[in-house]
Design brief:
Blueprint: E1 2-7, H1 10-17, H2 22-31, E2 34-38, E3 43-48, H3 51-65, H4 70-78, E4 82-88, H5 98-106, H6 111-120, E5 123-127, E6 130-136, H7 137-151, H8 156-176
Antiparallel strand pairs: 1-3, 2-3, 4-6, 5-6
Length: 178
C-alpha cells in the first residue's frame, strides 16, 4: 500500500474537491486511489495499491495544490506524455527578491509567461513560492530552463530567443521520427 500526505493551501482545497466532490471522485476513479482531504489541517492523504495510479494521483493533487485548474491538472491522468515539474523559488532566491522574480517570470501583463506557454506548448502556474509546469518532458525541461534564466536575471529578449530556438530544435527532432 502506497501512502502519502501532501500539504495543500487552504485556497486550493475547494478546487481539489470540486462541486459536489466531482473532481476528487474523478481522481479516485481514474487512479484507483483513495483521497482523504483534511481541510482543517490542509492535507490530502493519498492511499493506493497501484504504484502507477498512486504516482498519477500524487501529480494531479500536487498540480492543483500549486495553482493549476482541475481541468489542466486532470490532463496528467489522460495523457501519458505529460509530466509535472515544480520549481521551489524559495530554495533559489531570498524572500525579499520573491515578488520581483515572480514578476519577471510573469512579465508585463502576463506576456512572458504566456510566451513561454505558447511557444513551448506547456502550462505554467505561479502560486506562492513555486512555479509549476505541465507539458511533455522535453518541453517542460526547456520551460524550466527559461524560468531559471529569468530567475538568474537574463533579459526577456534573451529568454524569448532561447525558447524559440528550443521550439525549432524540438520540432526538427520530432520530424526525424517520421
Amino acid at each position: 500500500m502506497n501512502v502519502l500526505e501532501i500539504e495543500i493551501p487552504e485556497d486550493r482545497i475547494g478546487a481539489l474537491i470540486g462541486k459536489d466532490g466531482e473532481i476528487k471522485k474523478l481522481i479516485e476513479e481514474k487512479t484507483g486511489c483513495k483521497l482523504k482531504v483534511s481541510s482543517k489541517f490542509g492535507f490530502v492523504r493519498i492511499e493506493c495499491e497501484d504504484a502507477i495510479g498512486f504516482m498519477k494521483a500524487k501529480d494531479v493533487v500536487t498540480a492543483i495544490a500549486h495553482g493549476f485548474s482541475p481541468e489542466i491538472a486532470l490532463r496528467l491522468l489522460d495523457d501519458e506524455m505529460l509530466v509535472l515539474e515544480v520549481i521551489d523559488l524559495s530554495a533559489l532566491i531570498s524572500e525579499s527578491a520573491m515578488r520581483r522574480i515572480k514578476g519577471r517570470i510573469i512579465g508585463k501583463e502576463g506576456r512572458m509567461k504566456r510566451q513561454i506557454e505558447e511557444t513551448l506548448n506547456v502550462n505554467i502556474s505561479i502560486h506562492g513560492k513555486h512555479v509549476a509546469i505541465i507539458g511533455e518532458v522535453e518541453n517542460v525541461a526547456a520551460a524550466r530552463e527559461a524560468v531559471m534564466m529569468l530567475v538568474d536575471g537574463a533579459q526577456h529578449s534573451t529568454v524569448i530567443k532561447f525558447i524559440e530556438r528550443k521550439k525549432r530544435e524540438l520540432k526538427s527532432r520530432s520530424l526525424e521520427w517520421l
